[in-house]
Amino acid sequence: MTMDTTLYFITDSTGYEKEEFLNRVEAALRGGVTLVQLREKERTTREYLELAREVHKLTKKYNVPLIIDDRLDVALAAGVEGVHLGQSDLPVDIARKILGKDWIIGATAKTVEQATEAYQQGADYLGVGAIYPTTTKVKTILTSTETLAQICKAVPIPVNAIGGLNKERLDVLEGIPIAGVCAVSAIMKAPDPEIAARELMDAAKKILKK
Amino acid sequence: MTMDTTLYFITDSTGYEKEEFLNRVEAALRGGVTLVQLREKERTTREYLELAREVHKLTKKYNVPLIIDDRLDVALAAGVEGVHLGQSDLPVDIARKILGKDWIIGATAKTVEQATEAYQQGADYLGVGAIYPTTTKVKTILTSTETLAQICKAVPIPVNAIGGLNKERLDVLEGIPIAGVCAVSAIMKAPDPEIAARELMDAAKKILKK
Question: Which of B47, B73, B94 sits opposite A71 (nearest CB)?
Fold first, then answer.
């Protein structure tokens, strides 16, 4: 499965029954998201694993890699394609040592220093933000588009913009050599996640071409 | 490092500064605990890993294996000796597949059925309880000493009693072929964890001999 970060969909199951959640994830996949991250903070390990297996059935059907947020144990147990590591999660180099070279390892970076470190430790891609304030992570620190541009220059791996992004808000990213955009709420909470994903993909392609 | 579950100390860092917590863990080791489990529920993965490394320095000094509660990722990253899995954590068979045969894997069981399943899936020891109500896990279900005795008969691996145990309360375990006792508060919150561990060990040896 090839990693393509053009439209990276990060899930948020908060407030959804499992079936509704899975339906929304599949709708996003139909809409063309190129990468999916399962992000769960409140579940037990067993629940996280069970949900990961269900989401993995969907992502495999669409040939899209599944990334697990934070939990390398859940990723290993579910046999998915990757993990995403924030600054409060396992260090990238340790995760790389445990997982080997075939796994996708992504990292969050808010500064050039963090980005360089994550790249040197073996990250395959970076999520950089928050570009806009986000309702998903209320206490997050914003990253300027200047820093985002500097990070793109500093590391040779794909850099994705993240944080409060939707199809009306991508203009600020024009001209910055990002590899793609990340979206949570813009897809997850849309009336129709399939349409939302498709429209966001169109908007992303426009700014990524320039 | 040989696994000896005679006096299995399960930590609880709640309410302690890190230095005080580590001092108490080392006091327990000086007092003769034979196995240590680090159990953290509120920390980030990075914090859990950092604490695991510090506790591991202590347990290695006393040649006592360190078991990590729930988090196989933290256990792998810290390079400790084992993991302990409850019914809400990873299934034992999956953990065994990931870790291989050299790791210690413990499991919690409250019924003969759970005990048999954990043994068949590859658990090295069982923690069975709660024998008494416990302040550490307020919502826990009690296990009778009859069930404890049945579990000891049903599985050939070491079975430890857990839950509200202290040196005055071990009498109810007499005659049951347990391998050892687990203690959290009786050691952790004792005025002197070293003395508490030593006294609990003496009390445990008395009932384990019979």
Answer: B73
pLDDT in tens, A14-72: 999 999 999 999 999 999 999 999 999 899 999 999 999 999 999 999 999 999 999 99
ipTM (interface pTM): 0.94
Contact: B77, A70; criterion CB under 8 Å: no
With beta carbons under 8 A apart, name residues in chain A contacting B76: 72-73, 98
Q: Which residues of B touch A69 (CB under 8 A)?
A: none
Closest CA to B7 of B147, B205, B182: B182
Q: What is the pTM assigned to this prediction?
A: 0.96
Domains with residue ranges and CATH for chain A: 7-208 (3.20.20.70)
In whole angstroms, how far apart are CA A104 and each of A61, A80, A123, A156? 19, 10, 8, 15
Taking CB atoms and an 8 Å cutoff, what residues of chain B touch A46?
87-91
The residue of chain B with its CA nearest to that of A49 is B90
